[in-house]
Amino acid sequence: MTLTEIAQKANSAALILAHLSTDKKNQALNEMARILEENCESILSANKKDLEFAENAEIAKPLIARLALNEDKIRGMAQGIRSVAALPDPVGVKQKSMELDENLTLHRVSCPIGVIGAIFESRPDAVPQISSLCLKSGNAVILKGGREAQNSNKVIVNLLTDAIKKVPGIPEAAVQMIETRSEVNDMLKEEKYINLVVPRGSNDFVRYIQENTKIPVLGHSEGICHNYIDREADLEKALRIALDSKLQYPAACNAMENLVVHQDIASQIIPQLVTKFGEKGVLLMGCEKSREIDPGLAVASEKEWDEEYNDLKLSIKTVENLDEAVSFINEHGSGHTDTIITENSESAEKFMNGVNSASVMCNASTRFADGFRYGLGAEIGISTNKTHARGPVGLEGLVIYKYRVYGNGQIVGDYSGENARSFTHKPL
Amino acid sequence: MTLTEIAQKANSAALILAHLSTDKKNQALNEMARILEENCESILSANKKDLEFAENAEIAKPLIARLALNEDKIRGMAQGIRSVAALPDPVGVKQKSMELDENLTLHRVSCPIGVIGAIFESRPDAVPQISSLCLKSGNAVILKGGREAQNSNKVIVNLLTDAIKKVPGIPEAAVQMIETRSEVNDMLKEEKYINLVVPRGSNDFVRYIQENTKIPVLGHSEGICHNYIDREADLEKALRIALDSKLQYPAACNAMENLVVHQDIASQIIPQLVTKFGEKGVLLMGCEKSREIDPGLAVASEKEWDEEYNDLKLSIKTVENLDEAVSFINEHGSGHTDTIITENSESAEKFMNGVNSASVMCNASTRFADGFRYGLGAEIGISTNKTHARGPVGLEGLVIYKYRVYGNGQIVGDYSGENARSFTHKPL
To answer: What is this structure's pTM?
Structure first.
């Protein structure tokens, strides 16, 4: 099949998926969970092939770790699908109802977006996760996983579509997979049939997707997150939060990359930061002012402020006041997550109003910015877009709405010109 | 100024606009309304220059009519601005609140998108309308009007920024205007600073914008809308609705272009349609089946079904059943607005579930799909997008949200590993 044919099939499937009952979707999801658990062996033997290939190809150790499956991880996949089944159906929710006139009513009702293109790297657990989120939200999905995981992904997708086939009325093309890089480029051209692309992977990878398609992209490339330690910060909280923001999982997109410090407390806090981060092996860089306090800091050149290290590196910027902190963060941040540490609630509000990011926090670690921690139940990704969905995105990000109007013969001609009827516009 | 400088200024302004009080925004809006009314003369004299230019350039009559201003129209502009001032502020609305844990709360709060690029054709009344909607929603706007209206637009924008300057704290760059076509192309490249483009104009114009920018575009190019007259339609309602859908304002995007008829009632209704539409001078075309009933119908070639006439032309398609009607509409429609005429509520639901359009209707004219009629108070445009905002879009389409997290020193480390704390995830 050509990519256009695949996308057309997905589009036809989406029209059916859009009005499946919640029961039917959950039935398919539970079947998916069951079939994965029942076929551990075949999944693991496919995974073994991927691992052998990865080892021969001398792929980096952390990547291999993410690629490797075991029975526990497969049970985890099944559990993940069941938890998606347990979430409320995001489709068919009446968001607004209004009487336009007697016997003429308007409803805004949530509905699926249509066809989702999901492109991701090595982890095979992305396959059941993304497939289940798309099915629950009534969207058809075209998956493209990493080459390293291709054997595992293929077996898993086949099992998922076997599960789907067992539930009458669900189109098989609800979940499809493509395998080659050139198909990805073809997919990015199918704006007629694919309504949203969700890429997960390295910054460069996501940026490539963003720059090479007219289809809306949900996600983020960089995660350049900040802590700002205010003049009125509780310094003990500041240290705890800074260490957690940087170190709890340095490779995460919501880990801190730049630390901004108010000059009035810089001489107190910077030496403590140097000690604590030093103990953890973090390379610290500083601006000129910061280096006046601790000349042991490496020089932070201008480009440092715009870099996502995802590593044990941190740049420290000393600012004159809160306004400078906000401007600095808006200039150098990536609009992902930024936190202020302060005991002054007015300053907190000023910071949270002024910083133009998807998540703004006060006295909490940037690492909280995550769909699970935010209580969304499941996460399709974290978005730094300014339209549609922002921040950690759950099932809600996979739906849009349509307007439904119920009349009994009304025409617009009756509402215009002389003796025009008026609309009642009464919320229902 | 280069376009990048203009966009940067807008971006800086947007950061301030984002947290202006409702009062301050309304104060500026009321000042805008007042200043337009007080300067009728200078607006009309600029408009006269545009009209002279248009007449010399032999611009089409309807375009000139839309371009021409008078005192009444200017009072209408002022009234429009005041009605935007009277709308609820879409910014700062708490959409969701959740306790994540003791003393750790999450709020999802609406906020402006940032910088809007608005590109439109001849009507000068678009300037105050779009400017007021953007200001009310806390967005900075860069306007580009049609060349025909440039004198009028310039005077109006200058008056609006004069009004803005009178309210302390509102950045002047809240409303900016560019004037040349080449600046539009530059604007479309400013995805770093411009967050949304709203084009209004001809299909070709909107399509050009959509195809030449990486900035999200809110709008629609085609409006290919359908009526489907079901087997169980009340034929009197069907005739009324069909005539209104086509003729109440044929140039509107929500006017009907294709009429789909169930074969069981085709022989009854088609002759009546031919008579009624014939009286109004509408050129009727038909598929083969329709022409078997009335060979007087012109032949509808395949390309007719995908064309937006915006004119006194209509194509009639006879189908075997409701399923074929739905498929036909999903294939040939533009996802704008489609209506079924039927007395069978099950068929109505089936149609409204199956047709993948922004507005689906039962027994009502497609012409109802409009922000004013839907009670949105004001309309920035009608969108056929599948993400962000769909259908008639009011102020809500100009906002997104941000997450605000309030803690008192919480770190993620405490919620992982052994003895991990649990989240409470309690809706507030």
So the answer is: 0.95
